[in-house]
Amino acid sequence: MTKSISCKDAGKDCSWSAESTRNDDDELMSMVKEHVLAEHKEIELNPENIANIKSLIKVTKRFWWWG
């Protein structure tokens, strides 16, 4: 299973995206935080915003036997 997220998912005019093939939200959120701190300094990474960002994570691939 692969999880992904992009700035476009959040309505931003930014082409950045990230993908985790380990089904690991923490890995993905680490990439998101790094990107936000570097490119979107106007976004505060408070618990509410982090929860909103996590809600945008998508499952993009499934195993062949998993529907």
Structural class from helices and strands? alpha+beta
List the total number of helices: 2
Distance between the termini: 11 Å
What is the 3D shape? globular
- Order of strands in the sheet with the most strands? 2-1-3
Strand content: 15-25%
Radius of gyration: 12 Å
**Overall average pLDDT:** 89
Low-confidence stretches: none
- Main β-sheet, in a few words? 3 strands, antiparallel
Q: Tell me the number of strands.
A: 3
Number of domains: 1
Short account of what is shown:
This protein is α+β, with helices and mostly antiparallel strands and 67 residues long. It contains two helices and three strands; from the N terminus they run ββααβ.
Characteristics:
three-stranded antiparallel β-sheet, 19% strand, 67 residues, 3 strands, alpha+beta
Task: Report what the structure shows.
With 67 residues, this protein is an alpha+beta fold. It has one domain. The protein contains two helices and three strands; from the N terminus they run ββααβ. The termini are close together. 7% of the residues are buried. The model has no long low-confidence stretch (mean pLDDT 89).
